[in-house]
């Protein structure tokens, strides 16, 4: 139908697929042949039994000879099927392998292209430049830090000292004795707790 | 598992086409579903009208009633209108029954394929319908025309491609 407009549809079936199909078709034929022989064997076995019952030993023997021959045929076909299936599997595995190699190839090419973008000289140059820039930045930092005189530095340190000292200062300990807490009002501290806290904080400040 | 007959099957008037249009319509619908489920149960894909008359579906020996030839034709025509049946010849003596649409069969087959990791593989039609691997699957021993149609349905979805070779056909799943 696709040919109607002179445009052939893109087929995804490869030559290998066709080969596999052919092999499988051969296998199917052998399988059918096997089934046929198996059925015939069964029939002949029954017939031989019947002949023995009827006392026709010679005929039964002849039949069994024929059966034996067919048994051998069956073995041969089994072997052939095995061969065909092995071949099919080999082809399928080879297909998988080619896919793997294709994947590796694409990955390799991609890696190569990316390496082209970043040559060793380029990297060296960039690293050098970065180093230079860092150096430059340090110079600027030094210059800026240098604008402070020793006096300033001392003042800053002193201020820092003062701040840390201030932190350690503790509030005065209250001298009056605590009132005794009656046991019945055990829950009270819970209520008082949050109210006391801000007072303490204020003292600290 | 034996086939479960609907209650109408033992109801003698069911075997005579009813004159009342409304009743007749209901009766035909019942016949259609009976015929389809019978075919589904026995996995029948082709029917012969002459043989159908003798089959237990249209011939209830217990109550000694059978559907007349003309009535069977009417039922079949009804099925054909619904798309479940296709005539094989002009005389309308043989037909294909589709109690499952090709798309549904295709879906079943594709499910099996992907479940077994066989996407991207090639199969012969014989292998799919009669192979040892598909033993026990619903589509085992599916008739070839039906198999081909379900594969064609998959092909239009881009999930399969049918390969035609000198001796026999094959299919590759994607």
From TrEMBL, chain A:
GO cellular component assignments: ESCRT III complex; multivesicular body
InterPro entries: Snf7_fam (IPR005024)
Extent of Basic and acidic residues compositional bias: 185-205
Pfam families referenced in this protein's UniProt entry, alphabetically: Snf7
Biological processes per GO annotation: late endosome to vacuole transport via multivesicular body sorting pathway; protein transport; vesicle budding from membrane
Biased composition annotated in UniProt, kind: Acidic residues: 169-184
Coiled coil, from the record: 16-43
Localisation: Endosome membrane
Family classification: Belongs to the SNF7 family.
Entry protein name: Charged multivesicular body protein 6
Gene from which the chain derives: chmp6b
TrEMBL record, chain B:
GO molecular function: protein homodimerization activity; structural molecule activity
Matching InterPro entries: ESCRT-II_cplx_Vps25-sub, ESCRT-II_cplx_Vps25-sub_N, WH-like_DNA-bd_sf, WH_DNA-bd_sf
GO biological process, one term: macroautophagy
Cell compartments where the protein resides: Cytoplasm
Keywords: Cytoplasm, Protein transport, Transport
Similarity comment: Belongs to the VPS25 family.
Protein name, as recorded: Vacuolar protein-sorting-associated protein 25
Provenance organism: Pogonophryne albipinna
């Amino acid at each position: 139908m696709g040919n109607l407009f002179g445009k052939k549809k893109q087929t995804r079936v490869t030559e290998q697929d066709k080969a596999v199909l052919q092999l499988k078709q051969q296998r199917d034929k052998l399988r059918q042949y096997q089934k046929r022989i198996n059925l015939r064997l069964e029939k002949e076995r029954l017939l031989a039994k019947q002949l023995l019952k009827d006392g026709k030993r010679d005929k039964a023997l002849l039949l069994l000879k024929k059966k034996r021959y067919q048994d051998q045929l069956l073995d041969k076909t089994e072997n052939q099927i095995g061969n065909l299936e092995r071949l099919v599997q080999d082809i399928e595995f080879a297909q998988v392998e080619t896919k793997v190699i294709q994947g590796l190839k694409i990955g390799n090419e991609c890696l190569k292209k990316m390496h082209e973008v970043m040559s060793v000289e380029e990297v060296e140059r960039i690293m050098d430049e970065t180093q230079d820039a860092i150096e430059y930045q340090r110079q600027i930092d030094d210059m800026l830090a240098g604008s402070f005189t020793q006096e300033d530095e001392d003042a800053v340190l002193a201020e820092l000292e003062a701040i840390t000292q201030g932190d350690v200062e503790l509030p005065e300990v209250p001298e009056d004795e605590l009132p005794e807490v009656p046991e019945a009002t055990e829950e009270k501290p819970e209520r008082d707790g949050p109210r006391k806290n801000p007072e303490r904080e204020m003292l600290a400040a | 598992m034996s086939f479960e007959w609907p209650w109408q099957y033992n109801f003698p008037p069911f075997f005579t086409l009813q004159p009342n249009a409304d009743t007749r319509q209901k009766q035909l619908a019942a016949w259609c579903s009976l015929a389809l489920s019978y075919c589904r149960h026995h996995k029948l894909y082709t029917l012969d009208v002459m043989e159908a008359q003798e089959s237990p579906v249209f011939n209830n020996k217990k109550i000694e009633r059978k559907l007349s030839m003309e009535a069977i034709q009417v039922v079949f025509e009804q099925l054909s209108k619904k798309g479940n049946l296709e005539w094989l010849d002009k005389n309308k003596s043989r037909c294909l029954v589709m109690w499952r649409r090709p798309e549904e069969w295709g879906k079943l087959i594709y499910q099996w394929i992907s479940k077994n990791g066989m996407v991207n593989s090639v199969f012969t039609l014989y292998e799919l319908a009669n192979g040892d691997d598909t033993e026990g699957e619903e589509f085992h021993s599916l008739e070839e025309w039906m198999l081909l149609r379900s594969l064609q349905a998959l092909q239009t979805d881009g999930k399969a491609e049918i390969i035609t070779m000198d001796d026999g056909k094959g299919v590759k799943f994607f």
